[in-house]
Amino acid sequence: MIIVAATFFTLLLVGVPIGFVLGIAGAIGLFMIGGDNFLMMAPKRFFDGLNLFTFMAMPFFILAGEIMNRAGMTMKLANFADSLVGYMRGGLAHSNMLASVLFAGMTGAAVSDAAAFGNTLVPAMTKQGYSRPFACAVTAAGSIIGPTIPPSNLMVIYGSLAGVSIAGLFAAGILPGILICLTCMALIVALGRRLGLPKAEGGPKLTEIIKAFKGSFLALLMPLIILGGILGGIVTPTEAAAIAVAYALFVGLIIERTITVNDIFQMLIRTSRITGVVFLIIASASILSWWMTFMQIPQQLAAFFLSLSDNPLVIKALILTFLLAIGMFMDINAALIILTPMLGTLTTAIGMHPVHAGVMIILTLNISLMTPPVGACIFVLSSVTGEKIEKISAALWPFIIAEVSVLVLITYWTDLAMFFPKLLLDL
């Protein structure tokens, strides 16, 4: 166990890609417990780690988001959001946050949100007088709504690995995503006067709202198609993802006519690259996960936490602290795959509902997407806008504290977390 852990952290520290780190550490673990005979299991575990039908939903959701973004739907959603809340002090910051909620229903990926709005809304905000670090911080804070509100690639991964209802996880993600948006908007209001955020003249105009709604109507339909199909029991998440791609292509090619054949080729390449990276991590992590299961590490970790306290409230606090710390230094896909068996055992031991536990774990790891030193959204925004990572991180702390507050509320108020799963799916 010491050798495997040392190998893992050494390779990680010297900069080896996480997909290779997981595979190498797992292969060494297999060799240590059974020599060549166990090492021969590595290729089979690598393949079996991806041999789940539900994983097919991920590339479809990614491609659907790419198509809608390329079709110009991102800015139409932003314009609709701006027509609703743009009149407030810090109006464009509010619009950014609300647009993240709308955009989340198309992509399910925080990095896509950060890249899309980093290219569009951040320049618009700086042009209106917002500081660029603050504009980037608002965009990063809103971007984690993407993998919280369904569809969510992380929920697909967790549900597939843990055997938890993906539809239930999707339903459980709706309220946390909305609460994050409202909490961050309240924070923007609180910071408005102190930071001197711009304020538009006049109030909301019904004619502008109707015009913006008409322009974004086709984009707003996509979340309804995805969620309505899944939660209504009409289609599986994978089938809903495929339907979303077909709908996005129909909008982009036939109605909007903003997508060319060459665009489709480029989007397929980008989707393949993103999917390939995630799938490599999943496949490699399955080798390490099998070794950890064989060594009974999930049971040992659960026993360790329970030895510290037998109070479920304390155990939940320890889990949140542990995940926030892990997320600061590890890719969240890898962290989710490795830790799912361990935390599943632990949360079951303290009596948490599997769906409640899943949304708690996923939301915690989502927050780590905007925490230094390896928060993916921070790096994307720095790359897209040219702003320094340190300045973005400094501006982000109020938003991190606000979103951790929502996380604590969701963790300890079970009925709040399970409201939509019980209402829509009777879980």
Description of the molecule:
The chain has 427 residues and is mainly alpha-helical. It has one domain (53-276, 298-425). Helix content is 79%, strand content 0%. It contains 21 helices and no strands. The chain has helices spanning 2-13, 18-39, 42-48, 57-70, 73-85, 91-107, 110-127, 132-143, 153-162, 166-195, 206-231, 237-255, 261-294, 297-308, 312-327, 332-349, 354-367, 376-385, 389-412, 414-417, 419-425. α6 (91-107) runs antiparallel to α7 (110-127), α7 (110-127) packs across α18 (376-385) and α10 runs parallel beside α17. The chain is globular, with a radius of gyration of 22 Å.
List keywords for this structure.
427 residues, mainly alpha, 21 helices, 79% helix, globular
In helices, the fraction of residues equals over 70%
Instruction: Report the strand count.
Output: 0
In round numbers, the mean pLDDT is: 85
Q: What percent strand?
A: under 5%
| Tally of individual domains | 1
**Number of helices, where a helix is a run of at least 4 consecutive DSSP H or I residues:** 21
Taking Cα atoms only, what radius of gyration do you get, to the nearest Å? 22 Å
Largest sheet, if any?
none
Low-confidence stretches: none
The end-to-end distance, rounded to whole angstroms, is 39 Å
SSE sequence, one letter per element: HHHHHHHHHHHHHHHHHHHHH
| Derived structural class | mainly alpha
Q: Based on CA inertia axes, which overall geometry fits?
A: globular
